[in-house]
Design a protein that fits this description.
The complex is a heterodimer of chains A (269) and B (338). With 269 residues, chain A is mainly α. Chain A has eleven helices and two strands; from the N terminus they run H-H-E-E-H-H-H-H-H-H-H-H-H. Chain A has one domain. The radius of gyration of chain A is 20 Å and the shape is globular. Chain B contains eleven helices and 13 strands. The longest helix of chain B is centred in the middle third of the chain and has 18 residues. The N and C termini of chain B lie close together (10 Å). Classes of the chains: A mainly alpha (269), B alpha/beta (338). At the A-B interface, helix 1 and helix 5 of A face helix 2, helix 3, strand 5 and helix 4 of B. Chain A: Pfam families: ABC2_membrane_6. Chain A: This is ABC-type uncharacterized transport system, permease component.
Chain lengths: 269, 338
Amino acid sequence: MMTPALAKWHKYRAVGIITVKQQLHYRVDFIVRALFLLLILFIFIHLWRAAYTSSGSETIEGFALNQIIWYLVFAEAVTMACPQLCVRIEEEVKQGEVAVRLIRPIAYNGFHYMTYLAEAGLRFIVQLAAGSAIAWAYMGSPLFGWGWAGLAALLPGAFTVAFLLNLAVALLAFWVEETRGMEFVLQKLNFTVGGMLLPLELMPDWLERVCGWLPFQAVLYFPARMGVAFDGGRLAAFLLTQWGWAAALAVLCAFIYRRGVRKLNVNGG
Amino acid sequence: MLALEVEGLVKTFLVKRKPEGFKASVRSLLRPEWTEKTAVAGIRLKAEAGETLAFLGPNGAGKSTTIKMLTGILHPSSGHARVLGMVPWKERAALAFRIGAVFGQKSQLWYHLPPADTFELLSRMYELGRADYLRRRDELVERFELGPYMQTPVRKLSLGERMRCEIAAAFLHRPELLFLDEPTIGLDVIVKRRIRELIAERNREEGTTVFLTSHDPSDIEQLCRRAVVIHHGTVIFDAPVERLKREVLTCKTVRLKLRDGARLLEKLPGGVRAAEAGPSAWRLSVDTTTASIEDVLAAFVGHCAIEDMTIEDPPMEDVIRAVYEGKAGGRPAEEGTV
């Protein structure tokens, strides 16, 4: 006899499994993204090499060139793994597909969380493999010791915070016709104050302090930073901050969903 | 026992008005104008468990909006509803275990995957035991003749094959009440008939209450025992389908195309009127209260060289018009029909 908790686990696990199966059909998308990642990394490797050469130092703010490039690989792999949740939910509302979601005995946000995690997980593996190929060739092996474990420990929280940040914006589609503008802003905040292009330590002190109070660091900076420079003490702090943001954002999303679903206008017959 | 009970259900939407012209568009950006649109205007309805109910109306009548409120997807602006004893928009998740829905224009199957994968997912979503699920799946696969399609990606299925899979999937968790929103839209005559048979069979064998919307009068004639017609968001007719057939669906259109040089009967059978006449193509209106469609067809087939022939039901708009003109004396919503 299945307990209610076990039945729920099987339910959400099944959503994850079917998402992975469906994603395996988007081979061209994987290849295009991987090629784009290779191009970006190729450019950044040369830019950072030039920066290190001109600085005349082996390290910048404690990061060696090898670490910076692998930081970029990890951060880019996470970025490019994240599905476009706003586009998906906006289309669901516009096309009326949201009706098919809402007639099921599964939480709407929970369903999207599982599809997001499954899709992001699969894409991350592919992007990491592509990114590693070029970084390994130019920079050598990623011997970061416990860094890999730190990266793995912080990835679920990173994708969870990324999902919740996007969900908070995506759910606005229940009220407004377009959420793409807000998604664009969110994405660019991740790129800049989230530490996609460079670790927060390399930013001006005042900006680093500001970033420390924002949730964006939990998505890219935390896992990438821990991946290239493991620090046991900071790992606990990172995890705590990450899941703290996840809890706060989950409450916010639940609130937005409850309000939004009452306003929802399901289009089409 | 009542499967659903609806009282004064109203749904209004605010719709942004967008006047023509560039200036008006800019003004609308700064100061948008909203108008209130009433999709459902106080529906009153009851349905017994095990009933097969046709919920009819032209486009924009409020059929789909009503279904979406009864399944808990939309919150009403006012009014009450209980579906299987639950308030749908307040107990959506609990109700979802006991109801099913098929939206003819929205697929629940995962596009790139075979239907078997969606069935597996649904079994988990509805928390079915493994043995029970496998037994049920095999039973539905056999009854709906899905064997050849279960392992074929959905994108490779024809519309008819896909709809059979959709409807079988909706029956997987043995819903007590099934909402079918235009399940036969776009299908050919043979597939439509098969789908109707399968739904009727589930209703007969499992007592599933069927709540069907359709634009096709044949769906109603062949599947439902009761018809509720809504227009502009209110119920304008609520009576047994037999009565609708007797008093409103009294006309069929027969289109005949004759072979070159062939001639139509000198004298048309009683109850048949030529609505359009051409040298070789004819549109005939058959009054089914005075002439049986079988006899009329037999007369033409026996005496004319026919190249092609089709039989059409009156469009839903004509049915609505006939109801409005008082041709059918169905009871208005206020009286209710159970």
